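Suppose a colleague, Dr. K., hands you the sequence of a protein chain of 402 amino acids and asks what its three-dimensional shape might be. Before reaching for any lab equipment, you can write down a predicted structure in token form. Begin with the sequence itself:
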Amino acid sequence: MSEAKKKSALTWLRPLFALVLLAYVAYRVPWKDRLILEPPDKGSTAIVKGEIFGDWQADSVRFVVAAGEQPDADWPPELAAELRPGASVELSRASIGAQPSTHHDWQPGMIRVFREVEPAGLWAALGMFLVAALVSITRWWRLLLVAGCRTTWATTLRLTFLGFFFNQVVPAGITGGDVIKAVLVVRENPARRADALVSVIVDRGLGLVTLVGLAACVVLFSDAPFDELRLPVVLTFVAMLAVLLFVMLSWPRRLFNLDRLLARVPQKERLHKLDHALRIYADHPWEMAGAVVLSVLNHGFIAIGIYTLGQAFGDRLGPVEYLGVTAIANTVSSLPIAPAGWGVGEATFGYLFHLLGASATLGVAVSVTYRLLMMALGLVGGLFLLVPSGRTVRQELETEGV
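The predicted structure, expressed as tokens, is then:
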């Protein structure tokens, strides 16, 4: 297959995969309110569709059973009579009518979740995501200065938001926001092309390692039930940390003769320049420590924003649980298998919410809203294409074929 055909195939496969995954998630989440029961002497959980009247977060509600819903034949007659089609049942967290031994809960459908979201929470979350973006911009700006690229903070902001725009708003192709940033920053630093390119790689890699590190801390030291994720998360973090130390420190490079290996591979001159640029950061440990701190702040503000979204939707998970959910879900979403993580993020958020005992519907709603708000921030980056200098940017991207 020619390179052009491969590129065309990738251009269509990623959005197609995202659409299929989103369709699966949409199929799996409940769109209508439902009552979930574990009747006495019945092994499997039963689901009764209907409509919740009242505040679904309260300790008691009124539930109207949907027409056409039929209780199973082996339910106790008293319970089956209460939950007949069209019946209105007063529910409390303690019992259902005459059946106090029936374990039950009610869950809102997706339509209700979005209809009853608190608007103020959306604005607060958007503010947190903006602060997180500014912290991320500051981290990349410092890394550029360490590499000798004398770029202003304003220029770094412009390039970052252009990356947001192409990553969040124009995700149809294989071009990601980091590729756009790399192309533009290299163009603006022609004398230090390798250093500018490596700054994007280090910025991305450092943020990802910090994100996985936060996830590892949560699954190891929190009381949240992340047991089944503990081993894969911790092993992923250890592996990433080992690769980082191998590349950055001198003794593992000498131990495995990395310099000799680089001298034998194709494109050795280009790889040597990239390796030399990477080594610059190893010589500035305090700057790297500051970058790690900024990475923690960046991910922390994102987690606070997502926690704020959860509260706006009525969820009751704690901040530490949201930090774990955010770190794990965003790590999975960062895999380049779907545009801007669409579909992957929704499936992961829904799974993690369910794992923590919350509604998977809320998890999907939080994820969708998070991506829509990030898309709104991405639109700001599009404004930089409309200013007079935007024509130069468009020409540069067309020249590079992105």
